[in-house]
Design goal:
- With about 190 residues, the chain is mainly α.
- Helix content is about 70%, strand content about 0%.
- It has helices at about 10-25, 40-50, 50-75, 75-80, 85-100, 110-135, 145-180.
- The longest helix has about 40 residues, at about 145-180.
Length: about 190
């Protein structure tokens, strides 16, 4: 028989999932382009979910729920996003950043969260801009086109970094405060 704290319905996993889904839904609020919780929710899930599969699945589900809501709010143009390679690349970045977050398990500190947040932002920038170049028609499929895709992404990169840092501070900092008040959340992973 499993111990209650290992259950998906134990307070720890529910609190983590709730924070991740709530953060993902902030994408519905007005914000600068790419100022989002995408990378932060992945790092947070990787750092704190005891179950590695939950660590990967919950951020992906949170992101998907927010994508669906955005699709319903913005209609057909947003739903087209689901058919593009960019959709899969964003979700691959979430999964890869969650794997990076596994390295934070039991070692969460401000400096480490900062470093991994920056690394996740760089990963997102490199992968998604490469995907835009490789799968689209905006840029020629040569070295100059790839460089042009990366240069065009620089204004968005600053918002990716700021969003990841902001949401990482909110998630990791908020959870640290919550753990002080709720003894069931004090384990290194829940």
């Amino acid at each position: 028989m499993k111990h209650a704290s290992n259950s998906a319905f134990a307070p720890g996993p529910l609190a983590l999932a709730g924070l991740i889904v709530l953060a993902a839904l902030t994408r519905l609020l007005p914000h600068p382009p790419n100022f989002s919780p995408v990378e932060a929710i992945a790092l947070f899930g990787g750092a704190y979910f005891l179950s590695r599969s939950a660590a990967i699945i919950v951020p992906l589900v949170g992101m998907f729920v927010s994508d669906l809501v955005l699709g319903f709010v913005h209609g057909g143009t947003y739903f087209e996003y689901f058919t593009h390679a960019g959709f899969w690349l964003v979700y691959a970045c979430i999964a890869l950043t969650t794997l990076m977050g596994f390295n934070l398990r039991g070692r969460v500190s401000g400096a480490r969260v900062l470093g991994y947040s920056l690394a996740g932002s760089v990963l997102f920038f490199l992968v998604t801009n490469f995907g835009t170049w490789a799968t689209g028609t905006m840029y020629p499929h040569n070295a100059q086109g790839l460089m042009a895709a990366y240069v065009a992404g620089i204004p968005f990169f600053q918002w990716t970094v700021l969003g990841t840092l902001f949401y990482s501070a909110v998630l990791f900092g908020g959870f640290a405060l919550l753990r002080q008040r709720v003894p069931a959340l004090r384990a290194q992973t829940v």
